[in-house]
Fold Peptidase M15.
Amino acid sequence: MKSTRSAGVAAALVTGAAATFVAPVAVSAPAAPAPKADGCYTWSKSLSEGDSGDDVRNLQIRVAGYPGSGGKLAIDGVFGPGTKDAVARFQEAYGLPADGAAGESTFAKIYELQDDDCSPAHFDYSELNNCNSDWSGGKVSASEARSNALVTMWKLQAMRHALGDAPIQVNGGFRSVSCNDSVGGAPNSRHLHGDAADLGAGSQGFCALAKQARNHGFGEILGPGYPGHDDHVHVAGGADTWSAPDCGI
């Protein structure tokens, strides 16, 4: 039988241990870092048919080159069937699951393709305007002309990718009225709206460019065989006018 003194010492040791014990405190895992903001535009949520708003409009600009043969995608901020189909074609073109809904992988590919000024990495605003520096003097406001040029560049990006990613030579785009007059341009030229581009033959050749343009949202395609267009291919928005007789168009 233990002595009373031994029992007292044991009790003191137990009491001391209890006094110095500190219960563990739960520590939350660090929160996942927020996605790095893109220098141009960052989407904060996935988008699908039925959505609307500026985030949809920004998506439409970037998939404007995927409306299907002879089609045009409205840049209206409404995610309808046409936008769904364009997103699916974009996804298919870049090896993504083609479900027509824009989520993380789709946005990641767009971020990869675009520069901080929102233009696609393979094209530049300066290529689309060798007339002046401020996009003024055309048939639309300077801001609209510049916005139209951005859509045109994304169409050209789609066309470039479809042709194997070889560079596309852009010889000009927006013109003010005075610039247009100085080169003998038509008074109703789409160059005055900022949504036109004149393309050199490059490695693809004029006819390959003219034929491929039919799949990427260009209403106006003029090339070899059309008066004044034997040395370039003209692509633009506007009403449907395709004429490159020497290319079978």
Observations:
- The first strand starts at residue 170 and ends at 172.
- The chain is about 35% helix and 5% strand.
- The domain at 41-113 is CATH 1.10.101.10 (Muramoyl-pentapeptide Carboxypeptidase; domain 1).
